[in-house]
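From the methods appendix. Each design record in this collection lists the discretized structure first, followed by the designed amino acid sequence. Records were kept in a plain field format so they could be parsed without special tools. The example shown here is representative of the layout used throughout.

RECORD:
C-ALPHA CELLS (306 positions):
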C-alpha cells in the first residue's frame, strides 16, 4: 500500500475515497472498503482511504479516550488486506481540528485527495465542531464534481458492528463475540525483543513482543495462535498485561509457544487471541506464579487438544 502523510501535497491522481478512523478494521469497515474497491474498479481509479493519527478522541480528551484496538501499522496492514491501495494519514492536531467543514472539503478532499467518488459511514461528521455532514458533502459534490454515498451500518446477529462493541467484548473476555464483530480473531502484532529471561527460570521460554497499545483493550492470559513463524499459525499461551507479581508497570505481551525451540529474536509476529483463560492477577510469591503458569499452559494445550 502507498501511504501519504498529510494533505499538503496532492496525491498523484484522482481517487475513490473512504474516510474513517477504522480502529480495529471490523466487519463494518471491511464492508466499506469492499464497496470502495468495487467502485474504484468501475471508475478505474485507486481505492484510497483517509484516516487520522492520533484518534480524534485522543486529541480532544486523552484522559478518557478509548483503548486503541489497532496501532497505525496494524490498521494500515488490515486496510491493505481489505483491498485499499492507498492511504492518506492526516495528523489530528489543533490546526486540523480547527478546519471548517468547507475547508476540510476544499483542502483535504479536493486539494489533497482529488476525490471523484466519496464513501462514508452513516454517522460520519467532520470539520470544526463537527458541523459537516452528508448533506453538505452532497451539496458541495454537486458543485465540485464528486459523488457521495453513505453506507449503512453492518449488523451481526442483531448487533450493530462498531469499534466500541469490539472493545466491550474484549474487556469482558468474550473472544467469540469480538471475533464475530471483527470477522476474525483479535490480533496484536509486534517484534520479538529481549526480555528479563524469567521464563527460562521456570521452564516456559517466552517470546517477549514489543507492543504500543497503551492502555490495553484487555488483559489476562489467553490461548493464542501465532503467525509469522511458517506456513501455519503456531499454538501457544500468552500473558497480556503489566505482570503485577513481578512489579511491572508497562504493558507487555509474552507468548510461550508449544513445542517450539527456534531463536526468533527480531521476528515480527501476529498473535491471535482465540480464547481467554483467566484475568491477570498478582500472586503472593514467585512459586505461586510458577505453579499457575504451568496450569495455564495445560489449559491452553487442552483447548487446542494438544
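DESIGN:
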Amino acid at each position: 500500500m502507498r501511504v501519504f502523510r498529510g494533505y499538503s501535497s496532492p496525491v498523484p491522481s484522482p481517487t475513490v475515497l473512504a474516510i474513517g478512523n477504522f480502529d480495529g478494521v471490523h466487519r463494518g469497515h471491511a464492508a466499506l472498503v469492499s464497496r470502495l474497491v468495487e467502485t474504484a474498479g468501475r471508475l478505474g481509479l485507486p481505492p484510497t482511504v483517509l484516516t487520522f493519527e492520533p484518534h480524534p478522541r485522543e486529541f480532544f480528551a486523552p484522559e478518557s479516550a478509548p483503548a486503541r484496538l489497532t496501532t497505525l501499522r496494524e490498521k494500515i496492514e488490515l486496510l491493505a488486506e481489505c483491498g485499499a491501495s492507498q492511504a492518506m494519514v492526516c495528523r489530528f492536531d489543533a490546526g486540523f481540528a480547527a478546519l471548517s467543514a468547507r475547508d476540510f472539503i476544499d483542502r483535504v478532499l479536493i486539494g489533497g485527495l482529488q476525490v471523484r467518488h466519496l464513501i462514508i459511514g452513516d454517522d460520519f461528521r467532520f470539520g470544526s465542531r463537527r458541523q459537516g455532514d452528508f448533506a453538505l458533502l452532497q451539496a458541495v459534490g454537486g458543485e465540485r464534481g464528486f459523488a457521495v454515498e453513505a453506507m449503512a451500518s453492518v449488523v451481526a446477529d442483531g448487533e450493530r458492528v462498531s469499534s466500541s462493541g469490539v472493545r466491550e467484548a474484549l474487556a469482558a473476555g468474550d473472544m467469540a463475540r469480538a471475533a464475530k464483530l471483527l470477522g476474525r480473531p483479535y490480533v496484536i502484532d509486534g517484534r520479538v525483543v529481549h526480555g528479563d529471561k524469567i521464563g527460562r527460570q521456570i521452564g516456559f521460554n517466552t517470546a517477549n513482543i514489543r507492543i504500543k497499545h497503551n492502555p490495553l483493550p484487555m488483559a489476562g492470559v489467553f490461548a493464542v495462535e501465532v503467525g509469522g513463524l511458517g506456513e501455519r499459525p503456531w499454538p501457544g499461551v500468552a500473558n497480556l498485561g503489566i505482570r503485577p507479581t513481578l512489579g511491572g508497570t508497562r504493558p507487555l505481551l509474552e507468548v510461550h509457544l508449544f513445542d517450539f525451540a527456534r531463536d526468533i529474536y527480531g521476528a515480527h509476529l501476529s498473535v491471535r487471541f482465540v480464547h481467554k483463560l483467566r484475568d491477570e492477577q498478582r500472586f503472593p510469591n514467585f512459586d505461586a506464579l510458577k505453579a499457575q503458569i504451568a496450569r495455564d499452559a495445560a489449559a491452553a494445550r487442552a483447548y487446542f487438544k494438544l
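APPENDIX NOTE: The chain has a mean pLDDT of 93.
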